[in-house]
Design brief:
Radius of gyration: 17 Å
Shape: globular
Strand order of the largest sheet: 1-2-3
Helix content: 40-55%
Structural class: alpha+beta
Number of strands: 6
Strand content: 15-25%
Largest sheet: 3 strands, antiparallel
Number of helices: 6
Distance between the termini: 39 Å
């Protein structure tokens, strides 16, 4: 029997870490976005939208192939993404890779001094592709407001919902 709890999976008496959708995974993605955005800051709402588009660049107009497989029900990802990203930000802040900056509107986040060198030290193909996607996403959407980006992702969700309902009802796409 497997029990999932806060990034840990317990199988019988054995505990093993699950890196997927963990604080480390979302923290590294946020870090890549913040390094690509530097010296600009991002608030949590913008990071949530940018994180989604970094993982699913293939959904964006003119975007490169998505980093993760485009599953049909990925629209629900935004519902859980915020909490995961908060945990990742906290982890990266505890390692001084990300700095939280207070303002009258709330908090924004900035890549710390060691963030760039840390990312450059990651050498797996996945890490390199993640950094490339984060750079593409920031470059593509840098001049868009967070509200404009949210409108784009919501339009994508509406399109997927319609396509998924058509497939469920046996209608051609």
């Amino acid at each position: 029997m497997m029990i999932a709890f806060n990034g840990l999976q317990k199988m019988s008496s054995e505990i093993r870490l699950n890196p997927f959708n963990s604080a480390i995974e979302t923290g590294v993605r946020s870090l890549a976005i913040l390094v690509a955005s530097f010296p600009e800051t991002c608030d949590l709402e913008r990071l949530v939208e940018m994180d989604y588009l970094t993982v699913h660049t293939g959904d964006a107009p003119g975007g490169p192939e998505s980093l993760h497989t485009p599953l049909p029900l990925r629209a629900g990802e935004l519902l859980v993404r915020r909490g995961l990203i908060e945990k990742g930000l906290n982890l990266m802040m505890s390692r001084r890779l990300i700095v939280r900056i207070p303002s009258s509107e709330g908090f924004s986040f900035l890549a710390g001094e060691t963030a760039g060198p840390f990312l450059k030290s990651l050498s797996t193909n996945y890490a390199r592709e993640l950094i490339d996607r984060a750079e593409w996403t920031v470059s593509k959407f840098r001049d868009e407001t967070t509200q404009d980006i949210r409108r784009i992702t919501h339009r994508l969700f509406e399109r997927w919902s319609t396509q998924f309902q058509s497939v469920q009802n046996g209608e051609p796409q």
